[in-house]
Design brief:
Blueprint: E1 2-7, E2 12-19, E3 23-31, H1 33-36, H2 44-66, E4 75-81, H3 85-101, E5 106-110, H4 111-117, E6 129-134, E7 139-144, E8 150-155, H5 161-171, H6 179-188, H7 210-226, H8 232-257, E9 262-266, H9 273-283, E10 290-292, H10 304-316
Helix pairs in contact: 2-3, 4-10, 5-6, 5-7, 6-8, 8-9
């Protein structure tokens, strides 16, 4: 089965063509990141207008890469939620227009499920599987006992982890997108811990990152008021150490409680090198549990993940 995937949930205009949920025939992404850098974050109105301007050319480039015709497509899969409503509507309208014009079925895909299935490109799933979803808008632990069977064990109660990274980067004066810069500064720090930041931790599987964001801001303000030099490398290290510690602890706890065979990490923060190293070390102590990360290019928003998720949604049905 050849699936055409369409993703426009935020600021990437993406179209991909994937065969049988694994073989990538085309992967086209137009990123607006250079535009939104000027504003320190994504501006929804600008994002939706850029999607309108680029969607047709991205479609054309995908078919050029794949070397196939519209009639070769068996299914169209498009992100329908969650995301910026104006951006989503551009992709939805384009996908359904294409499906109607070519008499091809079209299904809507949950963006989060897409991020989870980005891992399938690199490795098959071994159930039960535990997915740690970490992105700019979401932080969740999701248990999967079969394909397209999602049971949310816990989620963020306020800021998502990626949002917290970007907000901390902003108060530190780092350019958007700042999450990767915080990760880099943290990994470069070689000294002893200087700052100690609190973070919400609990016995359940829910997350909260708004408190640590406020703690970083308070630390910066305190240093400024006292005229003290602020070590941004050390502060980034303290922030990342606190955040990754709770993410890893809850993930390992859930993996043990539910006797999972595989842990997969999904979303933009799956590219975070500090999280990758810490989780890899922790999972190494678990017998019979494999750890899977998506390729770096599939951590951020893309249409390959939507095409793969659409393939499995069509094959197994949405059990939720």
């Amino acid at each position: 089965m050849i699936v055409l995937g369409v993703e426009t949930s935020c600021d990437e205009t993406a179209v991909a063509i994937v065969e049988d949920g694994k073989k990538i025939l085309a992967d086209v992404v137009y990123s607006q990141i250079d535009i939104h850098k000027l504003y320190g974050g994504v501006v929804p109105e600008i994002a939706s207008r850029k999607h309108i301007a680029k969607i047709i050319s991205v479609f054309d480039e995908a078919f050029k890469q794949a070397g196939i015709k519209a009639s070769d497509i068996d299914l169209v899969a498009v992100t329908t939620h969650p995301g910026l409503i104006g951006s989503l509507l551009v992709g939805i309208n384009a996908a359904y227009a294409f499906s109607l014009a070519n008499n091809i079925p079209c299904i809507g895909v949950d963006h989060i499920y897409g991020h989870i299935y980005a891992n399938y490109v690199s490795a098959d799933f071994t159930f039960p599987t535990l997915a740690l979803v970490v992105s700019g808008g979401h932080t969740e632990l999701v248990l999967m006992k079969d394909h397209y069977d999602f049971n949310v064990l816990g989620e963020t109660m306020d800021d998502a982890v990626g949002e917290a990274y970007d907000k901390v980067a902003r108060v530190m004066g780092l350019a958007y997108p700042g999450g990767v810069k915080v990760d880099t500064l943290a990994l470069e720090y070689q000294g002893k811990p200087i700052y100690h930041l609190p973070i919400y931790d609990s016995d359940d599987y829910n997350f909260s990152f708004s408190g640590i964001k406020s703690a970083v801001l308070n630390q910066i303000n305190k240093c400024h008021m006292k005229g003290e030099d602020l070590n941004y490398h050390a502060l980034s290290y303290a922030f990342q150490d606190s955040v990754t510690s709770v993410l890893v602890r809850k993930t390992i706890k859930a993996a043990i409680e539910y006797n999972v065979k595989q842990i997969i990490v999904a979303g933009g923060v799956a590219a975070n090198k500090g999280l990758r190293a810490r989780l890899t070390s922790a999972v190494a102590s678990l017998d019979g549990v494999t750890l899977t990360f998506p390729e770096f290019r599939y951590c951020t928003d893309n249409a390959v993940m939507i095409a793969v998720a659409g393939y499995f949604q069509n094959k197994y049905g949405d059990k939720n």
